[in-house]
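3.2 Worked example (two chains)
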Amino acid sequence: MAQQEDFMGIMEKYLGKFNTEELHYMHDIPDIVTSIREAALLTGLTEDTIRYYEKVGLLPYAERKTNGHRQYSKDQILGIIFLTRLRSTGMTIEQMKHYRELSEQGADTLSVRYAILEEHQRKIQQDIANLHETSEIIAYKLQHYRELSEHPDLEDTNCNTST
């Protein structure tokens, strides 16, 4: 149990907070992933996307087995999962590539990486606020339509499309 708590602490430190189901899933990632197909299943990306990310330098090229097939470490898979999080929140491939390059340079770039993630988090929070506002507008419209359907005004012949 202590090992699992240590693992969860490490994951939270490097990747941010995840729900319990995600953390248990990450704990189940094998130390060595022996094919691109398995890597795709674990990360939610397609095999072609993983190949493309390698080609453009977003991911380091995977180690190869003697038969030429790709092989990934658990850390590489977790890194790919983190990149999918950044991508799903609107970070461009170029920005992610820059972040990864900084990561490879080690502790000297920690403050720069921190600033990048801090700015990205601000953008995400603004996106969330915008989505929340839009959701409230849609909820209002739905309530308005519900009221109209329950209490139609048959004398109103106005065909106002903004209603």
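3.2.1 Second chain
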Amino acid sequence: MTSKIPLYQEYHQQTGKYPGNSYRHQHGDIARAVKNYGATSMLDYGCGKATQWTKGEYWKEWGYMPSLYDPGVPEYSTLPDQKFDAIISTDVLEHIPEEEIPGVLYWMFLHARKFIFLGIANTPAKAILPNGENAHCTVKPHKWWEKRIKECATHPVPVILKTYPDRRQKSIITDFAITTNATNRTTTNDI
């Protein structure tokens, strides 16, 4: 996630922008996955200002605070290099340019042990970036995201994919055909 980071850093400086509210719509599915997969560590990839964790009490349901990453927020801008049982990302990937999606998905696969949860909007955003562009730059249908995820898999960690605004578009991807292309990609320096 590199080419739009300065725009998101500027956007985040505005009060109330991207506080982390999109998580609440996904909490039920994420909490079930944490329980079902026995996840004892988690990264929120693209946490925004993280108010869902710092002011909300969602994490108390499973007993630990997730690690937080968002390159647009200075205090969360360091991408961790450790592995996590779970990596979650809600309302994030559609903000990343299409050509950068494989690198981000690849990173997630390299760092997730038990599951990945992706909540992705597939409509334009209400938010407009400081340069006048719509904040959702990769607006694609559910099947497109499924295909990208399968192409980027480095190992068969389940991926729970929800696209919205139609939250009925949900799939759990476990049928991976791991190829040498997926395992030979570059790592976090290219993300």
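3.3 Remarks
The beta strands are 42-45, 67-69, 84-90, 112-121, 159-164, 169-173.
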